[in-house]
Amino acid sequence: MGPPHAMNEGQATDRINEAIKEVHNSRSGHMGAETTWKRLNEWYPGNAVTLQTVKEFIRSCPICQKDRIKQAESLPPMYRTVKAAEHRHVIGMDHTKVSPRDNNGNGTS
């Protein structure tokens, strides 16, 4: 991408955006910030572009925003519930950490 000291801030921003566009497009895919950032680091090792910069770029990507809204509307809400088999039965779930181990060596890690 070129040495940062050889260009002004506007030029650096333009070069960063061009590099992100190369790894985040219709051919490479709109795979989200982390995948785009990893691909950017593979294509341009030592680029010093932060994940936050990639997230900001993707927030301004109209395709990603349209797909995000479409996906959010199409997914039904997820409910995680455990129901008793009959109406007078109770289900209880606990998680405890035994520390230190007891005389029999029981404990959770």
* Biggest sheet overview: none
Structural Rg: 24 Å
H and E string: HHHH
Shape descriptor reads elongated
How many individual helices? 4
Q: Strand-residue fraction? A: under 5%
Q: Estimate the helix proportion, in percent.
A: 40-55%
Uncertain runs = none
Count every beta strand, where a strand is a DSSP E run of 2 or more residues: 0
Terminal CA distance reads 46 Å
Mean pLDDT score: 76
Structural class, from secondary structure content? Answer: mainly alpha
What does this 3D model show about the protein?
By secondary structure, this protein is an all-alpha fold. It has a domain at 4-74. The protein is built from 4 helices and no strands. It has helices at 9-23, 33-43, 51-59, 62-74. Helix 1 crosses helix 2 and helix 2 (33-43) packs across helix 3. The protein starts with 8 loop residues before the first helix and ends in a 35-residue tail after the last helix. The model has no long low-confidence stretch (mean pLDDT 76).
List keywords for this structure.
109 residues, 4 helices, mainly alpha
Summarize it:
By secondary structure, this protein is mainly α.
SSE order and pairing:
Blueprint: H1 9-23, H2 33-43, H3 51-59, H4 62-74
Helix pairs in contact: 1-2, 2-3
